[in-house]
From TrEMBL:
EC number: 2.1.1.192
Organism: Lysinibacillus alkalisoli
Cofactor note: Binds 1 [4Fe-4S] cluster. The cluster is coordinated with 3 cysteines and an exchangeable S-adenosyl-L-methionine.
Name under which the protein is recorded: Probable dual-specificity RNA methyltransferase RlmN
Active site: E124, C368
Protein family: Belongs to the radical SAM superfamily. RlmN family.
Location of the protein in the cell: Cytoplasm
Gene3D superfamilies: 1.10.150.530, Aldolase class I
GO biological process: rRNA base methylation; tRNA methylation
The reaction(s) this protein catalyses: adenosine(2503) in 23S rRNA + 2 reduced [2Fe-2S]-[ferredoxin] + 2 S-adenosyl-L-methionine = 2-methyladenosine(2503) in 23S rRNA + 5'-deoxyadenosine + L-methionine + 2 oxidized [2Fe-2S]-[ferredoxin] + S-adenosyl-L-homocysteine; adenosine(37) in tRNA + 2 reduced [2Fe-2S]-[ferredoxin] + 2 S-adenosyl-L-methionine = 2-methyladenosine(37) in tRNA + 5'-deoxyadenosine + L-methionine + 2 oxidized [2Fe-2S]-[ferredoxin] + S-adenosyl-L-homocysteine
Coiled-coil parts of chain: none
Anything else known: Reaction proceeds by a ping-pong mechanism involving intermediate methylation of a conserved cysteine residue.
Amino acid sequence: MDQNRLQTFNERINDLVDDAKEQPIRKKKEKVNLKPSIYSLEPHELKQWLEENGEKAFRAKQIYEWLYEKRVKTFEEMSNLSKALREKLTDAFALTTLSTIIKQQSQDGTIKFLFELQDGYAIETVLMRHEYGNSVCVTTQVGCRIGCTFCASTLGGLKRHLLAGEIVEQVVKVQQALDETNERVSHIVIMGIGEPFDNYDAMMSFLKVINHEQGLNIGARHITVSTSGIVPKIYKFADEQLQINFALSLHAPNQELRQKLMPIARAYKLEELMESIRYYTNKTGRRVSFEYGLFGGENDSVAHAEELAVLIKDIKCHVNLIPVNYVPERDYTRTPRNKIFDFEKTLKKHGINATIRREQGSDIDAACGQLRAKEREQETR
C-alpha cells in the first residue's frame, strides 16, 4: 500500500478513535468503552484497515454484506470470517452504538424512535411512509446550538456532534425494523435534531456510506439535506457537486423577522444567505427547496407571502409550506387552514412553485426534538 495513503488512513482511524474517546460519558453505574463505529468506514477505508491488520482486502466486501444486506447485530454472526478476524473487529470497532428506548407509532404509519447512545445521551429518528416510499429523517447532533425559537431540538443547547457511524446506524436500525414487514428504506432526509452543516465532515461521511452501492445503496436524488443557513458551508456544499437534494430552512421573508425566529440570521444576514443560495443553484444547476414553517400571527399573512415571492423570484426553487406542530415549550400556534391556503395561492400567483407539507405523526410526539425533550428533561434544560 502507498505509504502516504496509509498515513492518511491511519490518521482517519485515529480521528475516529479520538472522537469516540472525547464523547462525554453519562452513565454512572457502568463503565462505557467507547469505540469508533464500523458504520463510519467506507469500503476503501475498511480494505485499508484489513490490510494494515494482516487480513485480505476482499474481506471488506464480505463485511459490508453482513452489515448492510444481512444487517447482523454482532460480529460473531459473520460466519464466513475467521474467528481471529471477528475478534479483531470486536476489539477495534463498535457494531451497535444505539439502543431503542421508545418506539412510537402513529395511526398514519409514522414511527418515531428514541435511541440511547453509548454515552447515555438520547437522539430521535423518524420513519415516514409516503406513496413514493419509506423516508427516514436522521439526527446529526445531540441537541443543537442554532437556537431557533420555535424548535424543541435546541432546548438545552448542543451536547455533542454525532459520529458518522452513529448517523448511519439510525438508518440501519430503521431498516431492521422494516425487515419484519419486507419493506425498504428508500429515501433519507437529514432534518432531525441538530444542524447538519455544523457537523459537516460526519454528515459527508454518512452520505458516502449510505449512497455506496455496497452500502445501503440509496440514490443521491433520494437524499435531502437541510440547513438553517451556515453560509460558508453552503458554498462548500455547492462545490461538492453532488446530486443530493438541498433544502434551506428560511421561515421568514425579511431580515428582521428571520433573526427573531432564527438567531443564526444575526451571524449570516438574509442578503448574504440568498447570495449563497444563488451560488448553489448556478454552480449545480439544481433547484433549492425553501422550508417555510407557518406560525400563527408571525409570518403567515398574505403580505408575508408577497414579500417572500419578491425575495426568491429569480431563484430556481420550490417552497415547502409547513403547518407547524405545537411544541409545549414554545409559544407559537398553528396557522389556520384557510390562511395556509391563502399563503400558497399568493405564491403561486407570482409563479412560485409551492406545496403544503402533508401532516404526519400528529397523534404522537411529532415535532422535531419533542420526544427527547419529554423523556430526557435533564438533557434539555
